[in-house]
Amino acid sequence: MMECKTMKTGRLIALLMAGVFAVPAVADEPPKAAAQLQAATKIAGADAKAMPLFLCKPHAGFVIRNALENGSKIRVEPTMLFDNLYSISSQFVGVLAFTTSGGIILFDGGQSEAEARDFVVPGLVKLGLDPKQVKYVIGTHGHVDHFGGAEYWQRTYGAKVALSKEDWTIFVKPAADSKLPHHDFDVVDGQTLKLGDDTIKLYVTPGHTLGAVSAILPAREGGKVYPISLLGMAALPPNLEPNDQASGLLAYDKSIQRFKKISADAKAVGYYNTHVFAADVLPRLAAVRARKPGDPNPFVVGPAYVDRYYDIVHTCTVGAEARSPEDNAWNIPIPPGTVIE
Ligand SMILES: [Zn+2]
Q1: Which of 3, 102, 117, 269 is most buried per CB count within 10 Å?
Q2: DSSP track, 127-186
Q3: Which residues have CB less than 5 Å away from ligand 1 (the ion)?
Q4: Does residue 174 belong to any structural domain of this protein?
Q5: C-alpha of residue 134 to centroid of ligand 1, in Å
Q6: How much distance in Å is there from the Cα of 282 to the middle of ligand 1?
Q7: CATH code, domain carrying 82
Q8: What residue ranges in the chain does DSSP mark as E strands?
Q9: pLDDT tens digits, 141-186
Q10: Which residues, in sequence order, are CB contacts of 139 under 8 Å at separation 6+?
Q11: 135: containing domain
């Protein structure tokens, strides 16, 4: 996560004086941002309550910081989503393993070497997968919580490690116990990656960073293909315009609208985000583990639902554009007594 400035002092004092408060009840929320929350809630409707409406709320940063500080410590049971798609994750962030006849592609590599070695590797083994088969680690973006463990896979298993060219420029400091990987290759927008009998398509979607990587993955179950839309970014960038760390909200929105169309053209029937707290992935992971034979796969939601997911992210992005960068910040300290919604 990127360092961010504290929020406006006046508001902080007001919040502290209020004691316990619900995050959305902030008086000086710009009307445009409040209207976008309403619009997103309408899009979510009754059947989509778990969609990422928090992105629309003032101080979404509290949700993100809470997930980082607390969710990181809670490990989710390693989960098989489809015959060729597996999740090993904390409640904050994790890796998505796509298996092929020629080996495994990991999206993200763990927050650190310790996490990769002591959690992701045993997680793969628990799922019946062989860590030696990891051929690629594709960073969804160059923040340490996604890519801190990447070098471990390169050194230990000879996996090829990649980010977009833009994001190699921001991944300059690994986790404390970890090293920087060599640049095996740069992900280029629209590139295909072939491994075994499978070919996946990768896209560069700037916004959250300078060049996040998103993908369309052919998940399989019972001989059928279920295209899954993997968005390589979650938190909205605080800034409107680009800076040296992130392309900003305007670029984020453009990427969301473009990737929505790419996902629709690919007939994506589901979506995933390695930030499992941010895209209603967590409840689906629990549901897929509890699934009984014959039950539908909770990750298959249909193209219209995928569309609505991206519409909500777009709607919230437009709302965030009305706020100051300080009020969109991710890493603000959480005032005691705050209710995280
Ligand atoms: Zn990030």
Answers
A1: 269
A2: TT--GGGEEEEE-SSSSHHHHTTHHHHHHHH--EEEEEHHHHTT-----TT--PPP--EE
A3: 143
A4: yes
A5: 23
A6: 18
A7: 3.60.15.10
A8: 21-22, 79-82, 85-89, 94-100, 103-107, 134-138, 160-164, 185-187, 192-195, 198-205, 212-221, 224-230, 270-272, 338-339
A9: 999 999 999 999 999 999 999 999 999 999 998 888 899 999 999 9
A10: 108, 109, 146, 147, 150, 161, 162, 163, 167, 171, 213
A11: 29-333
- Cα–ligand 1 centroid distance for 18 (angstroms): 31
Report how far residue 311's alpha carbon sits from residue 290's, in angstroms, rounded to the nearest whole number: 29
Q: How far apart are the CA of 223 and the centre of ligand 1, in A?
A: 34
Calculate how far, in angstroms, residue 320's C-alpha sits from the geometric centre of ligand 1: 17
User: How many folded domains does the chain comprise?
Assistant: 1
Report which residue type is found at 339. V
**What is the whole-number distance in angstroms between the Cα of residue 140 and the centre of ligand 1?**
9
Cα 101 to ligand 1 centre (Å): 31
**Tens of pLDDT along 18-70?**
333 344 445 578 999 999 999 999 999 877 665 678 899 888 888 888 899 99
d(CA 317, CA 321): 6
Q: If you measure from the C-alpha of residue 235 to the centroid of ligand 1, how many angstroms do you get, rounded to a whole number?
A: 7
Per the listing, tokens 């316990």 go with: 20
Residue 236 Cα to ligand 1 midpoint, Å, equals 9
CA of 189 to the centre of ligand 1 (A): 19
Residue 51 located in a structural domain: yes
Edge-to-edge, what's the strand order for the sheet holding 134-138?
79-82, 85-89, 94-100, 103-107, 134-138, 160-164, 185-187
On whether residue 11 sits in a domain, the answer given is no
